[in-house]
Every structure is written in C-alpha cells, then in structure tokens.
Amino acid sequence: PEDDGIHWKVGDTLANLKAMCETPITRHYDLIFTCPPYWNLEKYSDNRFDLSNMDYPHFNNAMANIIHYCCRLLKRGGFAVFVISEVRKKDGGYVGFVPDTIKNFQSAGYGMEFYNEIIFMTSIGSDCIFMNSTTYGLICTGMEPLLGCSCFLKPS
C-alpha cells in the first residue's frame, strides 16, 4: 500500500516500540498519540503480560518503559499525547495514574515537559467540581463522562 505517513502498530506495545528503536534507520515522529489501558478498568485478555492483568506497581513500571521508548522515537519539538484519566482502587480512592504518568515522562530522559492538559466534558459531566491542581483530577457525581489528554513536549 501507498505510504500515507500514518503508521498503525498493533500488538505488544513495548515489543513494537523496542523493535522500532532497534531498526537500522530509526524514524522519529512529530506526534505519538495513544490511549493506554487504564490499569484494571477493563480486562483485555488472559495473558499475564497484558497490562490490564498486572498489579499497579508492575503496570506503572511497564508504562514507564513504554513512555521511555515513545520519548526516544519523538522528534525534538514533538509531542506525546496520552489519553488518560484516574482509575480507582477497590476502596474507591485514586491510584495516582495521572501523576505517575507525568512523573514517568519527566524521568524518561529527553527533557520531556508536561506541556498541556485537555479535558473533554459532556453535558452530563457539567456538574463536575474542578479540584485544585494538587489533586490531579475531577470529582463528579454519578457517571464520569470525561476524557483527559495529557500532552508532553520534547524540547527542541
């Protein structure tokens, strides 16, 4: 097929990213856009290496490795956009997925900066209360019809 400049990768994300970094002529990208699993919110398979089957510390470590390879593949001045939002522990409290993702980008090397945050809210979510920046999230009554994107910049 004709190369339209868009490259879709399906399968084990970490394996795909490692392979992309190890090719003799590594391409670098202006934008990496992804919607990673929200830890245990959905179960994708019975494979024990599936991110959705890991305990949170192993999940976060795997995400840190994925983020490292994403940053490595970005062009200077490029953006990584991760569609993420908080997930809850069994007791109802947040696990800290959003701040952990920010920390993972900042510690990945490459000078990654937390550049912007985009939160899409439907009218059903209009009763949400924005919390101060130290809480990294929103509190909503009932359903949580939110979609958050965290944007990171690889400096020029």
Largest sheet: 4 strands, mixed
Count of DSSP helices? 3
- Form type: globular
Cα(first) to Cα(last) distance is 33 Å
Mean pLDDT: 82
Give the total of beta strands. 6
Strand order of the largest sheet: 1-2-6-3
SSE order, as H and E? Answer: HEHEHEEEE
**Percent in helix:** 10-25%
Rg from Cα:
17 Å
Class by alpha and beta content: alpha+beta
The portion of residues forming beta strands comes to 15-25%
Low-confidence regions: 125-145
Written account of the structure:
There is one protein chain. The chain has 3 helices and 6 strands; from the N terminus they run αβαβαββββ. It has helices at 13-22, 56-73, 97-106, and strands at residues 29-34, 74-83, 113-121, 129-130, 138-139, 146-153. The strands form 2 sheets. The protein has a 4-stranded mixed beta sheet with strand order 1-2-6-3. The chain has a two-stranded antiparallel sheet with strand order 4-5. Strand 1, helix 2 and strand 2 (74-83) form a beta-alpha-beta unit. Mean pLDDT is 82; it is low at 125-145.
Features:
about 160 residues; alpha+beta; 4-stranded mixed β-sheet; two-stranded antiparallel sheet; 3 helices; 6 strands; about 25% helix; globular
Structure at a glance:
The protein is α+β, with helices and mostly antiparallel strands and 156 residues long. It is 24% helix and 24% strand. It has helices at residues 13-22, 56-73, 97-106, and strands spanning 29-34, 74-83, 113-121, 129-130, 138-139, 146-153.
